[in-house]
Design a protein that fits this description.
Blueprint lengths: L3 H18 L17 E2 L4 H7 L3 E2 L14 H14 L15 H6 L9
Antiparallel strand pairs: 1-2
Length: 114
């Protein structure tokens, strides 16, 4: 626990961050008002478990890693899972290597992909 002047300084910084970035920008892990975040599965059971259920719905997710490590396959599988549940997904291909044939084989409805 932080006491005295340090506590007041910490509270001032936290209030400033919330004012600047909005409510929920900084949370205390012991805070009971933490909202449950809706998730969509990635299609990889062990990854979903590690992530607490999958990828967060309504958020931008970046998949990062070395070449040929399965980033595109993982992303396309997650898109297919999202679409199978009636969701809408966007796929931003920074490597400019998107293959519609491979995407369809992975279960992606490419006509509905943003």
């Amino acid at each position: 626990p932080v006491a005295g002047a340090r506590r007041q300084a910490l509270e001032a910084v936290l209030k400033d961050l919330e004012r600047q970035y909005g409510q929920g920008a900084v949370v205390t892990l012991g805070d009971s008002s933490l909202a449950c975040v809706e998730t969509t599965p990635t299609g990889a059971l062990t990854l979903d478990r590690a992530l607490g259920g999958g990828l967060p719905v309504g958020r931008i997710v970046e998949v990062y890693g070395p070449e040929a490590s399965g980033k595109t396959t993982l992303a396309l599988q997650a898109v297919a899972e999202c679409q199978a549940r009636g969701g809408t997904a966007a796929f931003i291909d920074a490597e400019h290597a998107f293959d519609p044939v491979y995407s369809k084989a992975a279960g992606v409805a490419t006509d509905d992909l943003i």
